[in-house]
Amino acid sequence: MKVFDIYNILDKLSPFSLQEKWDNAGLLVGSMDDEIKSVYISIDLDEALVDEMEENSLVITHHPLIFSGLKRVNYDSYSTKLLKKLIKKDISLISMHTNIDKTHLNKYVAQDILGLKVLNSEEFVSYANVNMSFDDLVKDISKKLNLKTTKAVRCKDYINTVAIVTGAGMSLLNEVQADCFLTGDIKYHDAMEAKARGISLIDIRHYESERYFSTLIEGLLSEHLKKNELKAIITASQNPFEFFIEGETIE
Question: Which one of 29, 137, 213, 237 is separated from 86 by 20 to 30 angstroms, measured CA to CA?
């Protein structure tokens, strides 16, 4: 099977043309004509992960390894270190970022992971009714995402509607029409802005909310790969963050 074959399947499922102008989804490393022996799926790449991969493979990631133009390749940065390893092992790389966010990922996490009944989706933002207390909602979301500690902003004690954007979605706050917004990478000033608007927040974190990209893509590709006697290997880069309570790690 060639990279071209899988690229076309992915493009039909979630067109790369839907990506945001600033994004860099698509085939980032390798050639469309490359023959592949194995397929890996991961939210990100790190050195340990690439070291484990077989030669002549394809890896599909959520986050692009390259976002902006590279002026030099000195192997001393995150992206260039990994580029060297990928090229030496003839590993191709396809990234599905804002295109899969819009078509699948946000709705998948809301429905299949959090068990919410999605009412509608508007590009990145998915909406659902929850009708529960804020405290119960925080507990429910934390349990389903396996968050030992959860950062939140309370504006109301009872939540009727929620909006969800996996990853970092606070730039979309102006568009949110819900009692509570679930997203990641919430900063101090984001919290102050949301509080002024009367929108509660639950920080579902970046890595923790988007790690389900792998199971989503594996499910979408499994039938096509079986026909070619290939199996997607779900793997994951390591979350760069550790979390501590009173000086002791909890995750």
Answer: 213
Q: How many CA atoms lie within 13 A of 31 on its CB side?
A: 4
Measured between alpha carbons, how far is residue 156 from residues 99, 152, 199, 205, 231 in Å? 33, 12, 8, 21, 46
- Note whether 94 and 10 are within 8 A (CB): yes
In this structure, what are the phi and psi dihedrals at residue 118, rounded to the nearest 5 degrees? -70, 125
Q: What is the CA radius of gyration of the chain?
A: 19
- CA dihedral 52→57→61→64, nearest 10 degrees, is 100
CA 200 remoteness from chain centre: 22
Distance, first Cα to last Cα, the chain: 39
**Burial of residue 191 (number of CB atoms within 10 Å: 0-12, 13-18, 19+):** middle
**Pairing between β-strand 57-61 and β-strand 38-42 as defined by DSSP bridges:** parallel
